[in-house]
Amino acid sequence: MTNAELAIHFFFQLAVILIVCRLVGSAARWLGQPRVVGEMIAGVLMGPSLLGLLAPELQLWLFPQELSPILYALSQLGLVCYMFLVGLEFDVGLVRRHIGGAAAVSLAGIIVPFTLGGILSLTLRGDERFFTAGVSGWEAALFMGSAMAITAFPMLARIIYERGLAGSALGTLALAAGSCDDAIAWCLLAVVLASFGDNAGIALMAIGGGIVYALVVLGVGRRLLRHLGQRAGHTGQVSPSAFALVMILLLLASWYTDLVGIYAVFGAFILGIAMPRGAFAHDLRHTLEPVTTNVLLPLFFVYSGLHTQIGLVDTPGLWLLTAVVILVACLGKGVACWLAARLSGFEQRESVAIGALMNARGLMELILLNIGLSQGVIAPPLFTIMVLMAVATTLIAAPVFEFAYGRHAPARPAAGPVGRAGQELQSSAIEGDAGAGGPGAEPSWPG
Predict the structure, then answer these.
(1) Proportion of the chain above pLDDT 90, given as a percent
(2) Which of 273, 253, 275 is nearest to 265 (CA)?
């Protein structure tokens, strides 16, 4: 294909991706699931697992190899913007204020699944269907532990907002514990990526460069960015020049962290944490979030789906392993967090709700798995098994939460959640369909 033909074909490909993701996402919402669950499934359906099985020629025509680099590049842009938004939502003050109650749940949600994931990796590492030959035992354990410990923090925040629980003890504890868990899991993954390979100098450059980047951005960078927040506080919005500056910084941060070897999403996440809060963060989310969640992220779902081959799980043994992985994930995260919440003094139904929310992996898991696959840490069969686990745990979260707690929770008040944490969540609730916020708008965060 010529460049012009590639562009024309990509326009059609993008339209098909968005149509299918919207349709399947709407069907998921009709079934009581977050839209992101449907979009995750839509990506798998458009890959070799279904479309490639039923109509292989059509699937190859719709997703030609020549367009794969374009699809990949734009999906990475979506991930960078998404992780920046996650960092922008990360409330360090919330963690500080509820560190006592959140510590038990957060530690249980990290230590138990990480340990179980590490033990599971020991039984899998010798088989190249799961981990590639160059992966050491401790690298496999760190990666598998991180994959088991991750939480779909944005989806957790959305459910808490929708149920009017942002100012409650349950809501604040779950938000604090979930954000801590994800931060720790991403740090562990950074160590894996930095150490992968035989060159110790590369690993030291990655770890050292990442630490220096975090210190500079969260120290000097945060202070230099304050004037942007002050200006937005006076005008009530982010100016076009300020938005352009933020995007330039985001791209440079992603470039740098990818260059030193710890992946672009880490740079985007840290930069998001350093951004001023208040009117600046609210308007920045309002501008960036709709195109990120409704246009760019579906490309990532499809790119993941193109690498998810359910047909690779083709033996009873592999299906048994898939069931074991899902069981270990639920025991390590959901049950452990339920028990920690129960021992912290929460009632039974509240503890079950916390366990269900913490157990969802969602999009955060897919990001982690795609990094592992692209960096040669895991092989396609294990990638597929872990994607199935991510979908299963995310599917379980909403109905278990509703059964245990949602029926008893108060309806979300018309004016939005009460309290500082709730006001921050409400300010970020931008309707994915209309692109507008408001008291009745549903947050468009994927999970």
Answers:
(1) 17
(2) 253
